[in-house]
Amino acid sequence: MYSLQNISVSYGTTIALRPVSMEVEPGKTLVLIGPSGSGKSTLLRVMAGLVTPEGVLAFGGAPVTDWQRVRRRIGYVIQDGGLFPHLTARENILLMSRELGLDNAARVEELAALTHLQQDQLDRYPAELSGGQRQRVGIVRALMLDPDVLLLDEPLSALDPVIRAGLADELKNIIGTLKKTAVLVTHSLSEARFFSDRLVLMRGGAVVQEGSYADFEARPADPFVTEFIDAERKL
Ligand code: ADP
Ligand code: MG
């Protein structure tokens, strides 16, 4: 789905991403994991077309030349939903459809049912919803234009454990049912194991190891891999 060749990003003298090359396979879930500041969000923002990197980024087999077109095939979800506070949930969800002149009222109902959002919740403002409900709205909004890819930046991090576990199940189910390609960012190893077909562990803007969790355990590419796994296990 994506092919990245020597993708790097700098902000002034800060190197957010060192040259990274990777493939994102269609229909699979890739999880980017690593400590805070390791470049996970930057890499996801590159895939969302929100940050222009050095290097070559291909989407669907061809280098991206027209982000306008590609962006419609990508759903982007951030922590706590990233909703506009002055619009109701429904207005947030329908924003892009309105912009494009699409009548997607029926699709809202379908996706609301899939994410267990109730009618009265759709007509509330973000501040009148719980964290879990806001995140559901963010997910519905991202799915409205039926994207090929879902990019999720710590979608569950702002939630309490019970809500988080429930929404994790639902999200995995949605990704599977709708057969989406997904790239999910997290700093939680348990979340990474739960969602991933493949894991990419990052540190300092670079990829430390790529593979399955079993690979990380059996064949750590660097002492940091073991250190990261052990630190999480302790909790
Ligand atoms: P992560 O998501 O893994 O926590 P980020 O990708 O957000 O990491 O950040 C990687 C590095 O790039 C950090 O050092 C961060 O401070 C820096 N960074 C990210 N975005 C910006 C920005 N817009 N301006 C300057 N520095 C940034
Ligand atoms: Mg981040």
TrEMBL record:
Domain of life of the native organism: Bacteria
Membrane-spanning intervals of the chain: none
GO molecular function (one): ATP binding
Location of the ABC transporter domain: 2-229
Signal peptide range in chain numbering: none
Pfam families attached to this UniProt entry: ABC_tran
Keyword Transport: yes
Keyword terms: ATP-binding, Nucleotide-binding, Transport
InterPro entries: AAA+_ATPase (IPR003593), ABC_SmlMolc_Importer (IPR050093), ABC_transporter-like_ATP-bd (IPR003439), ABC_transporter-like_CS (IPR017871)
Coiled coil: none
Protein name per UniProt: ATP-binding cassette domain-containing protein
Organism: Pacificimonas pallii
Taxonomic lineage from the root: Bacteria, Pseudomonadati, Pseudomonadota, Alphaproteobacteria, Sphingomonadales
